[in-house]
């Protein structure tokens, strides 16, 4: 027996308030039994609240795409969240620390879709719907106290997504192999994390296909023009005022942000 | 960096490590047997066993060197500020795509690396990245199979140096990569075990850039009166976390998009 419509809306409101006021709340699962299905309903209800404030949906993000993270959480499937236009930061733009609870940033790749993409699809078919791929930084910021949560909690919380930056070099995956791109994330000129795009679900295209397939289970699909963040290639790093974070990706230039 | 211990002491520690490898029974950490063991002593022990191997029946040839302790994480673990090195002998090479017998290995682990193959010798002092670029014929994707003759990998920097920098076997890819084709600090490395990515990273994981690791080795060997020679193979340091390996597993390294080497571990 899942939560009823009113309960779902109330929990979405709690998370939306926490995000808007940068005031972390206790995990929802502490007070309500939460299934994964309920969690996605809460996530969608919270996105609806954003839509009522004229936030437009611009894409989706994948989370828990690395073997290490899936083992940590004890799951076999990645999770997804929604991206709105208000979450976009320009390349080199500034993030206000005060707008966040406890922000961290991780190095990713982003897909820019030229065609609708409906699952079930294989990674090869998914790539055919991609216009371009670019470097991306994703700022994650759990709306829960101490950045601690269960799997349904983090799903309800839009997979912790908060802001994203796309790099300014775009390559077509038809001519550019994205399976194993080296990635270096620097903070204030010092290397903080080193990884490869191979850590993203063993191949970033597998992450994109998995997203299309997860969405098809609930009758949804990806749309032409949408952005898909494929998942983190390394651990996330904490963000502090004054930080300048730069991600370098082999063949894809850089993506940068500053923290005020 | 001269040894401080008496030759007999060095000889007996070398014999302890040699016996561990031959019998397959790991030994106590050398630092516990000789408490004052210095880094100079440790390299002296390494040299004794390399000489012993070169003189052994199989008549191996010295084909190059490995550089170890090149990542920040491992330097922190071993509480040191610089890498170490060991010798590569022809008998340690295993063909890519072939079988790697577990026989003779005690507690092996695998790492993905870039191997440099030198076209000419390198100078012995003041060596920089430009010298390394000029002297390199090409690089290859490589799997280094490391092993410790010390029980439970209970090692400090002197233990691993004495133990030939924990080297054991290596696998080289067979498609040469020209350095002008790649960015050595940003090239991706993925290590798969039975098809799943178990370790990944990029060139920068070795001293910020593998070219710097090779330059370090040339200078370090130069200070000891040795040099890197034309034709030698240099394993330039792990580009991602190290992974244990067991019989029945297939390990593949991918360097960048196109370059690979693999090893199948058998009993």
Describe the structure.
The complex is a heterodimer of chains A (260) and B (267). In chain A, strand 12 and strand 13 form a beta hairpin. Chain A is globular and about 50 Å long. With 260 residues, chain A is an alpha+beta fold. Chain A has a single domain (5-259), classed as Fumarylacetoacetase-like, C-terminal domain (Fumarylacetoacetate hydrolase, domain 2). The mean pLDDT of chain A is 96. Chain A is built from six helices and 13 strands. With 267 residues, chain B is an alpha+beta fold. Chain B has a single domain (62-266), classed as Alpha-Beta Complex (Fumarylacetoacetate hydrolase, domain 2). Chain B has seven helices and 13 strands. Chain B has helices at residues 7-23, 30-33, 39-54, 72-77, 129-135, 157-162, 210-223, and strands at 62-68, 84-89, 93-95, 98-101, 109-118, 136-146, 167-172, 188-193, 196-202, 233-235, 243-244, 250-255, 259-266. In chain B, the strands form two sheets. In chain B, strands 1, 2, 3, 5, 6, 7, 10 and 11 form an eight-stranded mixed β-sheet that branches. In chain B, strands 4-13-12-8-9 form a five-stranded mixed β-sheet, with no helix packed on it. In chain B, helix 1 (7-23) crosses helix 3. Chain B is globular, with a radius of gyration of 17 Å. The A-B interface holds A 67, 177, 179-184, 191, 194-199, 202, 233, 248-250 and B 183, 185-190, 192, 196-198, 200-205, 208, 240, 254-258.
């Amino acid at each position: 027996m899942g939560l009823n419509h009113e309960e779902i809306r109330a929990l979405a409101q709690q998370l939306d308030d926490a995000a808007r006021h940068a005031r972390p709340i206790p995990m929802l699962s502490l007070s309500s039994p939460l299934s994964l299905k309920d969690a996605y309903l809460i996530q969608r209800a919270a996105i609806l609240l954003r839509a009522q404030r004229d936030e437009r949906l611009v894409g989706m993000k994948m989370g828990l795409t690395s073997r290490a993270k899936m083992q940590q959480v004890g799951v076999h499937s990645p999770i997804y969240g929604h991206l709105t236009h208000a979450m976009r930061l320009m390349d080199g733009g500034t993030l206000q620390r005060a707008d966040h609870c406890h922000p961290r940033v991780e190095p990713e790749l982003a897909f820019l879709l030229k065609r609708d993409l409906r699952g079930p699809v294989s990674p090869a078919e998914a790539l055919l719907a991609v216009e371009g791929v670019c470097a991306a930084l994703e700022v994650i910021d759990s709306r829960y106290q101490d950045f601690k949560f269960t799997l349904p909690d983090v799903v309800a919380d839009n997979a912790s997504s908060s802001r994203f930056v796309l790099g300014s070099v775009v390559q077509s995956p038809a001519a550019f192999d994205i399976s194993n791109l080296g990635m270096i994330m620097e903070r204030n000129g010092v290397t903080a994390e080193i990884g490869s795009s191979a850590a993203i679900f063993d191949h970033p295209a597998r992450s994109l296909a998995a997203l299309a397939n997860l969405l098809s289970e609930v009758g949804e699909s990806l749309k032409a023009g949408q952005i898909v963040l494929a998942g983190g290639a390394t651990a996330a790093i904490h963000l502090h005022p004054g930080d300048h974070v730069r991600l370098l990706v082999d063949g894809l230039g850089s993506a940068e942000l500053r923290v005020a | 960096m001269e040894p401080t211990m008496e030759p007999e002491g060095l000889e007996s520690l070398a014999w302890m490590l040699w016996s561990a490898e031959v019998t397959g029974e790991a030994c106590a950490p050398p630092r516990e047997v000789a408490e004052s063991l210095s880094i100079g002593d440790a390299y002296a022990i390494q040299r004794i066993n390399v000489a012993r191997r070169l003189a052994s029946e199989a008549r191996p040839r010295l084909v190059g060197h490995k550089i170890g302790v090149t990542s920040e994480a491992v330097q922190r673990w071993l509480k040191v500020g610089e890498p170490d090195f060991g010798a590569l002998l022809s008998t340690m090479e295993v063909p890519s795509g072939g079988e790697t017998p577990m026989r003779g290995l005690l507690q092996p682990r695998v790492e993905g690396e870039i191997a440099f193959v030198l076209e000419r010798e390198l100078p012995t002092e003041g060596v920089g990245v430009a010298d390394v670029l000029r002297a390199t014929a090409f690089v290859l994707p490589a799997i280094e199979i490391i092993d410790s003759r010390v029980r439970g990998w209970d090692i400090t920097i002197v233990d691993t140096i004495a133990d030939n920098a924990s080297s054991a076997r290596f696998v080289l890819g067979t498609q040469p990569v020209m350095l002008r084709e790649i960015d050595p600090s940003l090239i991706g490395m993925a290590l798969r075990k039975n098809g799943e990515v178990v370790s990944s990273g990029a060139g920068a994981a070795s001293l910020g850039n593998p070219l710097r690791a090779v330059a370090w080795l040339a200078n370090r060997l130069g200070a000891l009166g040795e040099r890197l020679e034309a034709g030698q193979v240099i394993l330039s340091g792990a580009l991602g976390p190290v992974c244990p390996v067991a019989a029945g597993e297939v390990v593949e390294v991918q360097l960048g998009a196109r370059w690979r080497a693999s090893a199948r571990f058998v009993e």
